[in-house]
Write a structure and sequence with these properties.
This protein is α/β, with parallel strands linked by helices and 262 residues long. It has helices at 12-23, 32-41, 51-74, 90-94, 107-114, 158-171, 184-187, 210-213, 229-232, 237-244, and strands spanning 79-83, 100-105, 123-127, 145-149, 174-181, 220-227, 254-261. The chain has a seven-stranded mixed sheet.
């Protein structure tokens, strides 16, 4: 068994949901590694697998996988960095046989990850905080870098989000950033969230539009932004309802894509 608390415990939410979804008939995503980890941990997923979180994680996984495959197809020799990787196994779903991949997370998370993920030639682990300015030193630089920040920024304060983008800007020349953004209304509602409320974590930051994130770092430019509702409405009546009602359709997390030039 592993012991995680606070924000780090939240990485069990997508793990449990991906495992649960994979086991379903006609599963929308396949993550056999999540199933394996849950089984080895003997984890009761009921605490972490609630309807809205389930639909949100499934939609997020589909959208981020699709976006990663798109940019890897455009930049097949790129370096890819998953910031706050947790137990995510995205490399296995998007690998083209040429990319170099880095998984970055806190030392205790990386230690837990090593128990379940075998070493791979093109996958490297960085056991540091994303706000540690030295972590980019472990990354082999290429002409193009694709950075993934999923399920993390909402747990940072705005100044910390700014600090992270400044670290990226100072160390990489030509970057695509795929980031999950949360609206302010949701960021104020940790105690009402169907799964996060069962942990000691709390949301710290939300923003209405990715355009506002541009102000945090010179050179950062929003090129696309898509609500998770775009995917969720395909799979449930509640998803269709939320996507259709003005005032509610924007109260969901989004995948925002940025370019960042040094």
């Amino acid at each position: 068994m592993i012991s995680l608390s606070g924000v780090q415990e939240t990485m069990l939410i997508p793990l449990a949901i991906k495992a649960s979804e994979t086991r379903r008939p006609n599963a929308r995503i396949q993550d056999l590694k999540a199933v394996e980890i849950i089984e080895q941990l003997g984890l009761d997923v009921s605490k972490y697998d609630k309807f809205m979180s389930h639909e949100g994680v499934v939609a997020r996984t589909i959208l981020f996988d699709t976006a990663m495959k798109h940019y890897i197809a455009r930049y097949p020799q790129s370096v890819c960095i998953s910031i706050g990787c947790g137990f995510d196994s995205r490399f296995s779903r998007v690998d083209n046989g040429a990319i170099i991949w880095y998984d970055l997370d806190f030392p205790d998370v990386i230690a837990a990850r090593k128990r379940f993920f075998p070493q791979q030639d093109r996958v490297h682990l960085i056991a540091k905080s994303a706000l540690d300015p030295t972590w980019p030193q472990a990354v082999a630089k290429q002409d193009k870098t694709v950075i993934l920040i999923e399920g993390m920024l909402m747990y940072l304060k705005e100044e910390e989000v700014k600090q992270l983008f400044q670290i990226i800007k100072a160390n990489f020349n030509d970057v695509i950033v795929l980031a999950e953004l949360m609206p302010p209304f949701s960021a104020k509602g940790s105690k009402y969230h169907d799964t996060v409320k069962k942990t000691n974590a709390s949301f710290q930051w939300g923003i209405k539009s990715g355009k506002e994130v541009e102000k945090l770092c010179a050179g950062l430019q929003l090129i696309d932004e898509k609500s998770f509702n775009c995917e969720m409405k395909k799979h449930s009546f509640r998803g269709k309802l939320f996507a259709a009602i003005p005032g509610i359709r924007n109260l969901n997390n989004r995948l925002a894509v940025f370019t960042l030039l040094s």
